[in-house]
Design a protein that fits this description.
Elements (H helix, E strand, L loop, with lengths): L23 H34 L2 H22 L7 H30 L3 H29 L7 H55 L6 H37 L3 E6 L4 E5 L7 E4 L2 E5 L3 H9 L9 E6 L4 H6 L7 E6 L2 H9 L1 H6 L9 E5 L2 H11 L3 E7 L14 H9 L1 E12 L5 H13 L2 E8 L23 E8 L12 E3 L21
Parallel strand pairs: 5-6, 5-8, 6-7, 8-9
Antiparallel strand pairs: 1-2, 2-3, 3-4, 9-11, 10-11, 10-12
Membrane topology: Multi-pass membrane protein
Protein name: Polyamine aminopropyltransferase
InterPro entries: MFS_trans_sf, PABS, PABS_CS, SAM-dependent_MTases_sf, Spermi_synthase
Length: 527
């Protein structure tokens, strides 16, 4: 409960208050508008931290939990600390908003800098969550004091004042929460949107205090607030001007000097590296997905075991780079290949980039290839409803350890895959590296068996480029996994032996038969 401040401490008696430059009703409205703006900015900072942490560190559930729990705790600390500022609520609020704008506005840039040049951003994430939480928590007590300053009936209408304050705060949070994914992130990107939010935060807090409560301030306090706000705006403006240069430098630090394409598609960040004459490398959200040095080993091991049998109609889930399709089209008798890809930007790059299109054999020019832009889970569900059937289903999806991919390795997903398989059809699943993440690999195996499949686990060796569930920045090939794990599955009869394909080895070690399957309501890959 927020108590009304004592007159002797925070709010002077009405007869001793300097007159406001506007009517009390208008002043109350301006304070509530500022609450609305500050709440929107605060939630944008919070979402920026969650989004960037998920991108830089991986496992969005864990990162969101860390940011939210630390920030809520820090907000409580900030509310307690704000008690000392209530006797000088106006100048205190102005300084808090300037600090919040500077810290929140620069948070994304500093996190990315620590990732690029230090190698990790976990400690910076916790530090920014604490700092931003403390500053956001300090806002409400100070704003409560300010709104009572302009209220005609502060003592008699404390309940209504609190209701108005929190209503404006919650509505502002709603607007900020919707503006971030639908406006700021796609239009400005993570770094610029945080900086712009900081500028808005600075102007809103500074304008309210200097104009509406300027007569409550001493000359020294006014000049202090003006100087601090101008300095913060200057820093944010300078960084905004230099943000493109910073992104290029950070990208070189992460990916090396061979970056040729770097775009935000609306789904993810797509980076293609590789100088002329060198094999290209494709990164999606910082994770190495294709390396021209060894992709042929991966895609042959993925595709060829599943193609031994009827293969007139093939469904490829993921694989927008076209490399799995390249291997499919080497077989006679293929009548149609349907590629289900979420990100149209990846397919566009695979069609138009000279190095990548040369690597995939320009498969998108083949009339047998059709691309459907959709979520793989939703597409399987709609396909199963129509009764359409495929001889081969190839699941060329990101590793199951990545939170966004967990549902695509669930019992429900494989149940849908079983419904779209024709008689004698086969399903092959990329299940992540077996050597470095055996529990994840065997959980995929157990999940397929729980969906009614007969399975043959196998792996491919000779891996030169390592990428784990998080962004891969290793320049030492020994730091990453050395194999790829796959599971070939069929309904009823056992699928053909994958070891007939060159480069394929049996999955070593006995399967952990007691591992439970992963489901939508109980994902197991993060355990």
């Amino acid at each position: 409960m927020i108590e009304a401040p004592h007159a002797s401490a925070a709010v002077a008696p009405a007869r001793d208050r300097p007159p406001l430059p506007v009517r009390q009703r208008a002043g109350r409205f301006l304070v509530l508008v500022t609450v609305f703006i500050c709440a929107a900015c605060g939630l944008v900072y919070e979402l920026e931290l969650v989004a960037l942490a998920s991108y830089l560190i991986g496992d969005s559930v864990t990162q969101a939990s860390v940011v939210l729990s630390v920030m809520v705790f820090a907000m409580g600390v900030g509310s307690l600390l704000a008690k000392r500022l209530r006797c000088r609520a106006a100048v205190g609020f102005g300084l808090v908003e300037a600090a919040l704008a500077l810290v929140g506005g620069c948070s994304a840039l500093v996190l990315y800098a620590t990732f690029a040049w230090v190698g990790g951003s976990r400690y910076a994430l916790v530090a920014f969550s604490l700092a931003i939480g403390v500053l956001i928590g300090a806002e409400i007590p100070l704003l409560m004091t300010l709104i009572q300053r302009v209220s005609r009936r502060a003592e008699q209408d404390a309940g209504g004042t609190v209701a108005d304050l929190f209503a404006a705060d919650y509505v502002g949070a709603l607007v900020g929460g919707l503006a971030f994914p639908f406006l700021l992130l796609p239009w400005l990107g993570q770094l610029t949107s945080a900086l712009l939010t900081g500028a808005v935060n600075t102007v809103a807090g500074g304008a309210l205090v200097l104009w509406l409560f300027g007569r409550d301030l001493t000359a020294r306090a006014r000049w202090l607030l003006v100087g601090v706000n101008v300095a913060v705006l200057g820093v944010l403006a300078t960084v905004t001007v230099l943000v493109d240069d910073f992104e290029r430098a950070a990208r070189r630090a992460v990916y090396g000097d061979g970056v040729r394409v770097a775009v935000h598609t609306g789904v993810q960040e797509v980076v293609l590296t590789g100088a002329a004459g060198q094999p290209p490398e494709l990164f999606l959200d910082g994770r190495l997905r294709v390396s021209g040095r060894d992709e042929h080993r991966y895609h042959r091991a993925l595709v060829h075991p599943a193609m031994r049998g009827p293969h007139a109609r093939v469904l490829v889930l993921g694989g927008g780079d076209g490399l799995a399709v390249r291997e499919v089209l080497t077989y006679d008798g293929v009548e149609s290949v349907t590629v289900v890809e979420l990100d149209a930007g990846v397919v566009r790059l695979a069609r138009t980039d000279p190095a990548l299109s040369r690597l995939n054999g320009r498969v998108y020019g083949d009339p047998r290839v059709r691309v459907v832009y959709a979520d793989a889970f939703a597409r399987l569900r709609s396909t199963a409803a129509t009764g359409e059937a495929y001889d081969v289903v190839i699941s060329d999806l990101p590793d199951p350890g990545i939170t966004a991919s967990t549902k695509l390795y669930s019992q429900e997903f494989y149940g849908l895959a079983a419904r779209v398989l024709a008689d004698r059809g086969r399903l092959v699943v990329h299940a992540g590296p077996m050597e470095s993440r055996p529990r994840t690999y065997w959980t995929v195996h157990a999940t397929l068996r729980s969906a009614g499949f007969v399975t043959r686990p196998y792996r491919a060796t000779g891996r030169l480029s390592g990428f784990e569930a998080g962004p891969d920045r290793s320049t030492d090939d020994r730091a990453g996994p050395h194999d790829w794990g796959f599971v070939l599955a069929a309904l009823g009869a056992a699928p053909p032996d994958p070891q007939a394909v060159a480069g394929v080895r049996p999955a070593e070690g006995p399967p952990a038969r007691d591992l439970p399957p992963s489901t939508l309501v109980h994902p197991r890959y993060g355990e």
